[in-house]
Amino acid sequence: MTAQSTYENTRIIDIAPLHSSDDTKRAQVDQAIAQAMEQHGSFVATGFPGAAGFGMQMQRLLSFFTMDEDEKRVCAIKEYVSDHANLYRGFYPLPDKPHWSHNEIFDIGPEPPMTSPDVPGAESFREANVWPNREPVADWRREMHDVFVWQRDLSVVLMASIARGLGLEEEAVAGPARGRNGTYRILHYAPAPEGFELGGYPGREPETIEDGRKLLARTHVDTGILSLLWQDASGGLQMQGPDEVWREVEPLQDGLSVHGADLIKGLTEGILQGTTHRAVGDMGDRCSAGFFLEPDFETPVIAPT
């Protein structure tokens, strides 16, 4: 927990038994995960394959944001560079008008890119990844894609664990996630200029929370099935459980915060909901990254009536 926080921490669960042959220990972790998700909507996972040294690897991936603006804008989406074709994958510069957060973003999806139905709006999800002309560090592109792949695999393992812990049919819950779809996103929150206002959502939220920190990203629920988030030592990620209590996510450098997105409700027969969350801080530099598990386009996901 950050020194200035007065909030209770989310739970930390060592998920190593999910990758072992010990059925008893695996069942214990299944129960712990299901309980955390049902009661608080989230937990922090440790002990997953690739955890050792993951914080150091994240610093390499985040080096993208140290590149010159012109180098980053080679990857910018069409909204920011009009002659670019990419609508979704790529670079989002710092906003110059009210926005949901004052951050810059780079994201990728699966390789090769997904296919999708030929319906309006689907073209952005068929996009190939867009990469800078040079790598900020050696093997950066390969490492970005490798992290996308293993975090996607880990997300499916977690969905299966959630199903077992909730007493649901494993394939009914995890099956829709067993494709290739997803998004991996790195983010840099830069100090906002004087007068910058958070926008992008109806209504107004308090800009300052109870312990004096500022709201860095507006309260929201992710789209998709499941989200895995990493944050640097600045911390500030907070989750709101079904009990409407806000909890602090401890910034473990070799840990991942896990929470449900909007489609998890239908897959768990309404037991779990998408988790409301936000980012708060002192307005200094902050970096984070997220993997967002998405179903393949042919997958029916039906919300309970």
Explain the overall architecture:
With 305 residues, the protein is α+β, with helices and mostly antiparallel strands. The protein is 22% helix and 21% strand.
Please tag this protein with its features.
single chain; about 300 residues; alpha+beta; 8-stranded mixed β-sheet; 4-stranded antiparallel β-sheet; 6 helices; globular
- Silhouette: globular
Question: Any idea what the radius of gyration is?
Answer: 19 Å
Poorly predicted sequence stretches spanning 5 or more consecutive residues:
none
| Main sheet characteristics | 8 strands, mixed
Order of helices and strands: EHEHHEEHHEEEEEEHEE
- Approximately what portion of the residues adopt beta-strand conformation? 15-25%
- On the 0 to 100 scale, the average pLDDT is 92
Counting helices, strands and paired strands, the structural category is alpha+beta
Can you count the beta strands? Answer: 12
